[in-house]
Design a protein that fits this description.
20% helix; 75 residues; single chain; alpha+beta
């Protein structure tokens, strides 16, 4: 997993309950689709990272419940 964001926007992928046991394999699929994975959180079913294409491409992958832009706070 690469800590360098490179290109793309910061996104959060929520994993379906059925895919929780295979979250690392799903992360590998997301990487092959062009996502730069930052973190995989198996307990919460979250994969975070960076992606430069349409989120609809990520949402179509089996095991993905949702994909959205990561919210950030600025002070």
């Amino acid at each position: 997993m690469n800590e360098n964001p490179g290109k793309g926007k910061s996104i959060i992928v929520t994993v379906t309950d059925e895919a929780l046991g295979n979250i690392h394999q799903l992360a590998d699929k997301l990487t092959k689709k062009g996502m730069n994975i930052k973190r995989v959180l198996p307990i919460t079913g979250i994969i975070s990272g960076f992606y430069s294409s349409s989120l609809s491409n990520i949402r179509k992958i089996k095991g993905v419940k949702n994909a959205e832009d990561e919210a950030s706070a600025q002070f």
